[in-house]
Request: fold
Amino acid sequence: MKACAVAHVNDANTEAQAGSRFRQMGTTKGDCAALTAEVASYFDSVISAIS
Reply:
């Protein structure tokens, strides 16, 4: 789920990854490093909480 969310934020998801649920955000291209790191940190927090 983390990899899928990060790919979605980066608008880097592909039809091969998503299958019939493929959708791109269509956002403006740019540096999304800060947003990607924030999204990943939420997944890391949840993973550590349930581990």
Observations:
- The mean pLDDT is 78.
- The CA atoms of residues 10 and 31 lie 9 Å apart.
- The chain has three helices and no strands.
